[in-house]
Design a protein that fits this description.
Elements lengths: L2 E6 L3 H13 L2 E5 L3 H10 L4 E5 L3 H11 L9 E6 L5 H6 L4 E4 L4 H20 L4 E11 L2 E11 L3 E6 L8 E7 L6 E11 L4 E8 L2 H21 L28 E11 L6 E8 L3 E5 L9 E7 L4 E12 L3 E6 L4 H20 L10
Parallel strand pairs: 1-2, 1-3, 3-4, 4-5
Antiparallel strand pairs: 6-7, 6-9, 7-8, 8-11, 9-10, 10-11, 12-13, 12-15, 13-14, 14-17, 15-16, 16-17
Helix pairs in contact: 1-5, 2-3
Length: 365
Amino acid sequence: MVLTCLLVCEDAQAVSVLRRVLADLGIDAEQCADLSQALLQLSGQQFDAIVVDCKAEQAAMDLMTEVRRMPLNHSTLVVALIEAQNRVRDVFARGANFVIYKPVTTERALGSLRAARGMIRREKRRNPRIALHADASISYGTVENAPATLIDLSESGMALQCDRKLPPSCKIYFQFSLPGHTSAIRLAGEIAWQDASGRVGIRFAHVPQASQRVLKDWLQQHLEQMSHATAPQPRTTVSSGLGLLSVSASDRRNLIRHACRLSADVYQLGVNVPQRCSLTDISTGGCYVETTEPFPPRTKIEIIVRTQETKVRVRGSVQTTHRGFGMGVEFSLENAEQKQQVQNLIALVASRESQADIPAEPWLG
């Protein structure tokens, strides 16, 4: 698979380094020093990647905006060459996928371009990204509703621009609205990668059914528009792959949590009306309960899980709350019988993981 890249840059030193690195990565490079000429070239020729020098920042961002409107290159991966004074958030908002800080060195170029090549190849095999610019809020650990910007989206993950460095291995909860929709998308994911500029790649871990429908419909609509804008080709469809994946990270309590999907009745102590919820992971110390109406932290609750093999009744307290998505619960196991019930349930979940070839891995709650 031969990959191609257009270098929109007049800096001879940077071009020399980039050409050498691209050649080492097996990517053919063409150079165009003039932005207006590059626009003409991009309107008639498809590239897998475009490297744009942001020395003339506004003109470079205008070029990236136009690229995203082009039938041939609207989903092409864009790498921006930037300096400290450049407005990085605006560069990403205009369509950049990666940045390389100047002066361009072999080490800097190799790190970003190697990651870019991997993304290009994955996208060629899987689903196209759709570039967009939407406000999002994220929650993780003890952080609630931190601001972020959604910059591209596919059926299996997304990319964000975030002002803070995220923990390298943790479960992240997101909320955002897609252009043209008023309903909020709520989902969970895990960090696939992040770079020094604050750009973070997310792999979806779970998307609730209501959000899944909105997301699939929006992606399908835009994929159809992309298909109509390009040469005739088989229609791209969105699969049902927006679901539970194995989330891997190290749990801060050194407990192994197993991804699962178990129906449960959850009662607030003293209230006889249950909430019908789902457990999405479980350990000997606690679990995560998916519900659109989580209880406040420190609420005492009782959870009843019934399967064909067993019934478990356990009490606990809410430790973390993610509004509109769910809550983390710490178990209060009062005797050996309750501990054994939880162990039996975990053994059942672990056996299902083994049958489905899903490894049980640590998780950060």
